[in-house]
Specification:
alpha/beta
């Protein structure tokens, strides 16, 4: 008996040791995939001007983003714009900063980001003139802490809006296990989903995000979010159609592609579209796009663009190595681009999903047909939304493979301009339109607004690419000059290099 008990004790001990080792391994991998292992840059090292600021001789973007008001003086007292005018008397106590020949526009907004636990991303947004972001996922507690710090003025951060979730329905074991560690929780019953909505509301989230919810659960989330007074945003899930959307509490669609995917389902599915009826599908979409857009406008539903992400996906699919050489890879958190056992990275050989696309002539041809059709469809729908007055808000899906936080918004704005939106429309999509949706007192340069502003060297109404020509960023009334913005980028690059396990020099040459 003693021998049996001894054997049992040893076996139990080995099981417990194996379980502990497995748990430690899983936690290490989760820290890697979330970017948590990367050195965090200390924001207190950067010089900031704050208090009473007088910006003189600056050309101010009009509230409707259609024109410039020349040679203005803008007075900022702490966080607020208190006066704007030509030849203003500047009271004592103001720091006077001459911006002759410069252009003052509202701070930019990215309405769709994924930061994982990569806190340096917040600095990347500031360095790129982005003063507000919307997180479309929620690592347990992390983002709420970041939001609180931003509200209290701790560190350097854009204003933060957080959608809890994404809320998913999935019955496979892999999805359920991933839900324990990553921010894609699974809800397989209306009761569980309703309980989650109530919890998200209590915890202080701004919205709940629908993802792949089955139809009954989608409507349960819709009903409960309306009851709790919390916004419902996100995907038009694969189990829902336009009638479900129009009758729901969903007030925002997270991607233009969610609309085109719903049209695909109406048409008969992807296999029919991409291999048999490409032109018929695009014609079908063109004939129906305006009607869909008018209905979305009637229901007052906001649409986040994220159009650049599909072109990024196509280029990664067709030639991943060459694509990586075209982006600001050195600023991306190395843990995320290197990947882990539980999550693919961005680099070749990191279980990247683009490694597995066929590279023979037939496979490349099919990929081209697929992506060209998909991208054309998104462009058709985006133009229809714009011409029918739908509230388009610029978003990028930053953090998604190949989409670098901060930098990606400028690519998004240029893409929107390239497919037909005017410079004014594009600027509105990244300033006044998103702040109206998010309910923040910014987005235009007007008295009484929060001083979230961007000073540019060149006129963005002449060329939308001039949003990159940043002279200074003002966030919550704190002015950061170009030298310090460059220093932020330099320090992030240093932190990434300290934490890097894989040499990426071949993608930087």
């Amino acid at each position: 008996m003693k021998k049996i008990l001894k054997v049992i004790t040893i076996v139990v001990g080995l099981i417990m040791l194996a379980s502990s080792c497995s748990l430690l391994y899983i936690k290490r991998e989760v820290r890697q995939l979330s970017g948590e292992n990367t050195t965090v840059v200390d924001p207190t090292q950067f010089e900031i001007k704050q208090g009473k600021l007088a910006l003189t001789n600056v050309n101010v973007l009009s509230p409707n983003s259609d024109s410039l008001i020349l040679n203005q003086t803008v007075l900022i007292d702490e966080k607020t714009i208190v006066a704007i005018g030509e030849n203003l008397d500047i009271p004592k106590g103001y720091q006077v900063i001459n911006h002759e020949g410069k252009y003052l526009i509202p701070g930019l907004v990215d309405t769709h980001i994924h930061a994982y636990k990569s806190k340096n991303d917040l600095l990347l947004y500031i360095a790129n003139g982005i003063t507000q972001v919307a997180f479309m996922s929620s690592w347990k507690g992390t983002y709420l802490d970041w939001k609180k710090e931003a509200q209290e003025g701790i560190g350097l951060s854009p204003h933060i809006y957080i959608a809890a979730g994404p809320m998913s329905t999935a019955h496979d074991l892999r999805s359920k296990i991933r839900a324990w560690f990553a921010p894609i929780p699974v809800y397989n019953s209306p009761k569980k989903a309703r309980k989650a909505v109530r919890k998200f509301k209590e915890e202080g989230y701004d919205a709940v995000k629908a993802y792949t919810l089955e139809n009954e659960i989608y409507h349960a989330v819709s009903e409960e979010s309306k009851k709790q007074g919390i916004e419902m945003v996100g995907h038009l899930t694969p189990y829902a159609d336009f009638d479900d959307l129009y009758s729901s509490n969903q007030t925002q669609i997270a991607h233009v592609e969610e609309i085109t995917k719903a049209v695909e389902r109406q048409f008969g599915g992807r296999s029919k579209i991409y291999w048999d009826s490409t032109e018929y599908y695009l014609d079908y979409l063109k004939k129906n796009a305006d009607e869909i857009a008018r209905k979305i406008k009637e229901k007052d539903i906001v649409v986040s663009t994220t159009v650049i992400v599909y072109e990024c996906a196509r280029e990664q699919d067709l030639n991943l190595t060459e694509y990586l050489k075209t982006i600001d890879l050195e600023y991306m958190n190395p843990g995320i681009i290197e990947g882990s056992k539980f999550n693919p990275g961005w680099l070749p050989g990191t279980n990247n999903r683009y490694d597995f696309y066929p590279q023979d002539s037939v496979g490349i041809s099919k990929s081209n047909i697929y992506w060209n059709t998909y991208i054309k469809a998104v462009e058709i729908m985006t133009r229809a939304l714009a011409r029918n007055g739908v509230a388009l808000v610029a978003g990028t899906d930053a953090g998604n493979s190949g989409v670098v936080p901060g930098f990606s918004l400028h690519y998004e704005l240029e893409y929107l301009n390239r497919i037909g939106l005017s410079n004014s429309d594009v600027l509105r999509s990244a300033t006044s339109a998103p702040t109206k949706w998010l309910g923040t007192n910014s987005g235009t340069v007007e008295v009484g607004k929060v001083a979230d502003l961007l000073i540019l060297d060149k006129n963005p109404l002449e060329d939308i690419r001039n949003t990159r020509q940043i002279e200074a960023v003002i966030t919550n009334g704190r002015l950061i000059e170009k030298s310090q913005l460059n220093l932020i980028l330099s320090k992030i690059k240093e932190a990434n290099n300290e934490s890097r396990k894989t040499d990426i020099q071949q993608y930087l040459d």
